[in-house]
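seq:
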Amino acid sequence: MTGTIDREALREKYRAERDKRLRPDGNAQYIEPKGRFAHFLDDPYVERVEREPLHDEVTVAIIGGGFAGLVTGARLVQAGVTDVRIIEGGGDVGGAWYWNRYPGAMCDTAAMVYLPLLEETGHVPTMKYVLAPEIYGHARRIATTFGLYDNALFSTAVTSLDWDEASSRWIISTARGDRIRARFVSMGLGPLHRPKLPGIEGIDSFGGHCFHTSRWDYAYTGGSYEGAPMTGLADKRVGIIGTGATAVQYIPHLGRAAKELYVFQRTPSSIDVRNNHAIDREMVESFEPGWQQRWLMNFVTLQTGGFTDEDLVMDGWTDITKRIRDRMIAQMGTNGLGPEAMLKAYEESDDEKMEEIRARVDAVVADPATAEALKPWYRQLCKRPCFHDEYLDTFNRSSVHLVDTDGRGVERIDETGVWVGGRHVELDCIVFASGFEVGTSYSRRAGFETAGRDGELLSEHWAEGMHTKHGIHVHGFPNLFLVAPNQGANLISNVTHNYVEQGATIAAVVAHALEVGAEQVEVTAEAEQAWVRLLEGSVRAFMGSPDCTPGYYNNEGQPVGRKERLNGSGYPEGPVAYFRYIDEWRSSGEFEGLEFR
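struct:
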């Protein structure tokens, strides 16, 4: 196939499609859910129960009850640290999988590597890609297995986090009037949890019903995220704004339920084969102990271009990287393996893959004009790759209408509907699939400020970009730990693997501090600076390519400077090397770069 691709014409097509979508406002094109939309931040799933404010102390407070917080809590308990309290704004654990209850919600990374602590909890995923109820159920299983419910606070939003030097304690204030003292604090707030809305003219004026996908309104649509049909939409004209990874999953369900469905598309997603199937429970139960760690390392090794005896996961992530790797080997036999040869191998493999994805659109979608509009004209990793076997077929329904905006987006919204290209579409309901904040400040996404030694704010410390060691420790913020991919492995294809390793590292540090009686644990300024210098010398930044179509992978197409690169950087030698490095670092017991006082 590669010999038939006009690569220069393809590059020009990619550039032209990117240029259509470039906007000077970048991340500012999105707005916060305020005013009429403030309720989009409310919890529709659990009724808040009033309680008296708490004024107590815990050994470890974990802010955030998603997988980042749960895995850290589990690792702490395994290390013998049981005085742990999760503080979560939602009504239960689960994080994104507590909020994401839209129809068809499921993981797009194989469950055998995505769901953490499977062996520890005795769970075997039912499918290769499991649905949201099972993921949420697994989050609850972790909390139950490790006793994390016992001291947890739910429906409790943190309003400030302040370091008290005199007592070597963090003071956590909440919207419920709590004032909790914690010897250590771990923050696992998740990369995608604060909803954002498109800043479309007239968005406030729509007179029909509307909601954000992270707060799906089953009272209006009918049905349930467990799969009951949405009978409330049988006589409704529904419009969808946003066609990313979330929309790809729920559009097939709305296509079946709505009287008329209008999908307003700025940029089409890349839709590869999912090929979901049941998992053989007996097979998994026959695996030797430690099997999940072997699967995790198998996946990350292949997904980053390494070699293994077999591909255990066999998905779209490993497929593209194996193609690139094999082409690089072929290049070595002729021209060596310099930067140009590596780039050529990557481009040829990506071109081949994207041609297959575009050909799949033609094979599935009956109407040629609709098929053409659904084709993605960019490199696969410019946007989150999607894997689905029903999305494209949905556009063969006579009641489903693709309204392609040719990269411009919706022009405006009025009381009765949406305007695109001078055309007005009347709607009863608008569903916003506009995603979550990514490029905004950490404190804005967290919803509170963190004040360290001498009152220095974390947002000030990071004004010119993240400064950490391992993505975990921050100088000037003793006894505080972060759980996120950034400045660590930065493994975006399987975010929870990052959490597993970060959680184990935090547990080792806390257990050591308690063992030696240290009141404070802090990374030295020199160690933090050295780690930042190491990252600055790396090309492994999660910022996509400047030639990519705009999106949250590449700062919405805006210039990527030092700050953006630091915020999206990872260990220079890649995730596999980082996981090995951090395991050796915490296992040595020396904790190089940290001071225990």
